[in-house]
Design goal:
The complex is a heterodimer of chains A (253) and B (432). The two termini of chain A are 24 Å apart. Chain A has twelve helices and seven strands. In chain A, strands 1-3-2-4-5-6-7 form a seven-stranded mixed β-sheet, with helices on both faces. Chain A has helices at 31-39, 63-76, 89-100, 121-128, 132-141, 145-149, 159-168, 174-184, 188-192, 216-221, 237-240, 242-252; strands at 3-4, 17-20, 44-47, 82-87, 105-111, 198-204, 226-230. Chain A is of the alpha/beta class and 253 residues long. Chain B is built from 17 helices and twelve strands. Chain B folds into two domains: 9-289, 3-Layer(aba) Sandwich (Aspartate Aminotransferase, domain 2), CATH 3.40.640; 292-431, Aspartate Aminotransferase, domain 1, CATH 3.90.1150. By secondary structure, chain B is α/β, with parallel strands linked by helices. The radius of gyration of chain B is 22 Å and the shape is globular. Helix content of chain B is 38%, strand content 13%. Classes of the chains: A alpha/beta (253), B alpha/beta (432).
Chain lengths: 253, 432
Amino acid sequence: MHIFSGTRGLQGDANPIVFIHGTGMDHTVWTLFARYFLRHGRDVLSVDLPGHGKSKGPLLDSIESLSSNLLNYLDSRNINKFSVVGHSMGSLIALEAASTQPERVNSLVMIGTALPMAVSEALLDLAKRNDPGAIDILTFMGYSNNARIGNNKNPGMWMTEGTRRLMQRSSKDVIFKDLMACSNYADGLEKAKNVSANTLLILGENDYLTPRHRAKDLINNFESVKVKEIRNSGHTMMVENPNLVLDYLSEIL
Amino acid sequence: MKKPQDLKPDTLSLHAGQRPDKEHGARATPIYQTSSFVFEDTESAAGIFNVERTGHVYSRITNPTNAVLEERISALEGAIGSIATSSGQAALHLAIATIVNSGQHIVASNCLYGGSHNLLEYTLPRFGIETSFVDFRDLDAVKDAIKGNTRLVFGETLGNPGLDVMDIQQISDLAHDNGIPLLVDSTFTTPHLMKPINYGADLIFHSATKFLSGHGVVIGGLLVDSGNFIWDQNDNFPQLSKPYKGFHDMVFTEEFGPAAFINRARKEGARDFGACMSPHTAFLILQGVETLGLRMDRHVQTTREIVNFLSQHKAVSSVSYPELESHPDHELAKKILPNGCGAVFTFELKGGKKAGQNFIENLNIFSHLANVGDSKSLVIHPSSTTHHRMDEAALKKAGISEGTVRLSVGLEDIEDLKDDLDTGLRSALKTS
C-alpha cells in the first residue's frame, strides 16, 4: 500500500494519524492537513487505497474488506493505536475500523458522511460502464453551488476541474467498485454503537452527495460525538474550506 | 439521470473566481493593491508558508485580484489552475523554465510569434536550451525532431502570421507517445473559440494583452495547467517527480498529483523569477474577460466580412484566412474552429513592399502598431517589424513576403473599416 508520510517518514508516534480518501481519489486530497500534522511532530499515514493512486490492486468492493486491508497494513507497520480521518467513502472505512477494533482507535473523524450512503442506480450504471459521465456527476454533486462559481481559498486553482482531473486518473472500474462499496455498507449504523474513540463529524451545509440530514441516524447511534457544520460548503470540504477543516482536525487530533 | 449542467462560458466570464466582497459587499472584483498581507498570528503564518493553510503572503507569489483572473481563465479553459504573469512572454518563459533544463531541447512550430521565436532561437541557447523549428503540418518532421533530451513541444493554435491551424490532437499524440507535454499559445483564439485542452494540450499560455483584455491598455500573460499530464510517468521531469531542495524536499507529483506543474511553477518560478502581474493589471484584464464572448463573436463576424471584401479587391493578390477554401488548413479549421478563426489574418498586396507602405500610410482608422487583439483595428507589415530578425529563408518558411500585410480586425463599424481599407488599397494600386 502506498502511503504519504512526508519527508520525515514514520518516527514511532504513539498516536499516528491515518487519512483515508474517498471515491476515485488518492492521498493528495490530504496534503495540506498532512503537512500541518507533520510539522507538529505527528506521524501521518495518508493512504492510497488498493487500486487507487500509486497503490496496486486488486480493487476491493466492500467497506469491510477495505477496512480489514487497512488494519492489516497498520499491523504490518507495527502500528497499534492510531487516529483515523476519512472523507466520504473513506469515512465509512474509518468507521468500520473504529468499530471492529475500537481499542486501537483514539480519534475518529468522518468528513462528508451519511448512513446509509446509498448511490443511485443511474450513477452506478454509468460507473459500471466506466462512462465519464459518472465522474461528471460526482464532480458536480461534490461541490456547493458557491464552489461552482469558484473563489477558491487556494489562489488560482479551479476547484471542480481539479477534482475531476484526479478522478479521471482512476483506473478502470475504480469508481464503480468504490460506489458499490458505499452503497452496500449496510451495518454502519449498528457499527457506530461499538465506537469508543473521540468522534467528530464534519458536515457541509450544502453537501449534495451526502446531505447532512442523512447523517442524523449515525449521529444518534454514537455514544459520544461532536458535529461541526461548515456553512455554504459542499461535499468536498477539504477543497472548499481547507482552513476550517484544519482548525476542526487540530482540535480533536 | 439528468446530465450535470456546469456554468456556461459567458457566465463564467463574468463570475468565475469571484463572489461579492464579504466585508463591504462590493460586486466588482476589488483591486488588492498591496505588496503583502498581514498574518493572523505566528502559527497561521507558519502554516501558510508550509503549505498547510491557504492564504496570501506576498503579491509576487499570489494576490487576491490576480487569483480571480487566474481562476476565471482556468474555468474558461477547463483547466485546474493558472498563474498570471507580467506578460505573455513571461508566461512562456515560466512554462519552459519550470520543466526544461540546460542541455535539453524543445520542438517548436516554425510559425511562431516573433517574440516567442526570439526567446527560443536566440536567448534560450545562452542558457543551454536548444530548439528545433519544424513545420507542424509535417507530422513525420515533428516526430523526427523529437530527441531523447526533448522535454517540450510548443506551437500556436493559429500560427503567426500565416494562421497555420495546429492539429493539436495529432501533435499532442506525438508528444505523449514520447512522454513529453504539449504547450500551446492560445492567444489568437482565446477559450471562446477553442479550448486546446479538449484536443490534448497539456499547458496553455496567453498573452492577455490581446483579446482577453481587448482594450490594449495593459501587458499581461497567463500560464494555464490542464492537470492532464502525468509528470512521473518517466524520469524526464525530476523537477516535479524528485525531491526539490528549494522547498524542503517537496516532491510535487507526490503532494499535488494533477496539480504538480502549476504548484512548482508558482513555488519556484513565480517566487524566483518574479515576473508577476500587477493587481491593477489583473483588474483591467478582468474587465475585458467579462465581455470576451460578445467581443470575439463580433471580431469574427467583422473579420469574415473584411476577408470577403479583400478577397474581391483588385489590389489584393491573396488573402490567408483558414475559413477560406484556399487556406491549406481549411478542413482542419472547420473541425476545430467552427466558431471562427479569430480576427488576425494576412493578405498579399500586388506591388510588394512599396505598395504595402502606401497602403499602411493611407489608412485612417486602422492603427499601424505592433499588437493584435485590440478592440481597435490594427495593421502591420511583418517583414519590416515583428519578424524583421528572421532571414529570408525563415520568413519564407513562415509564409511572409515583402507584400504581406497583417490586420487585426477590431470592433468598429464594418462599413467604416471597409471604406478605410479601400482608401489604402486604392493608394497601393497607384504604386503598382
